[in-house]
Amino acid sequence: MEWTKKQYNYYSNETWPWIEDKYLSYFTKDNKTSYTTKEQLRKTEITGDENVNKIQEGVIEGVGGQLGTGGLGQSIGQATSKEGINRAERGHT
């Protein structure tokens, strides 16, 4: 049973970050950095006004998009996705 737990943990720690990267690259223009940035900024939406929410969504897409594919900060987004976020998910420091 202990061996099974170790194998499962190893598999999930090593494989899921790769699967997430591939999903984001195939189906979105995001990398993990831009995706995380957008998700964190979406938590700041506080109004119930539809017009303000549209403006906020535009800003969120603009800021997060700069770190994704084709953005000015694409190289920064990719580097932090691979080196920072993936290592943090695996528990490496």
The gist of it:
The chain is an all-alpha fold and 93 residues long. The chain is 76% helix and 0% strand.
Using only CA atoms, what is the Rg? 16 Å
Question: What is the first-to-last residue Cα distance?
Answer: 28 Å
Low-pLDDT sequence parts? none
Number of strands: 0
Please tell me the overall pLDDT.
78
What count of helical segments does DSSP give?
4
- Helix and strand content put the structural class at mainly alpha
Query: How would the global form be characterised?
Result: elongated
User: Helix-strand pattern, N to C?
Assistant: HHHH
Question: What can you see in these coordinates?
Answer:
- The chain starts with a helix and ends with a helix.
- The longest helix has 26 residues, at 2-27.
- Helix 2 runs antiparallel to helix 3 (50-66).
- It has 4 helices and no strands.
- The model has no long low-confidence stretch (mean pLDDT 78).
- Helix content is 76%, strand content 0%.
- The protein has 93 residues and is mostly helical.
- The chain has helices at residues 2-27, 32-42, 50-66, 74-90.
- It is elongated.
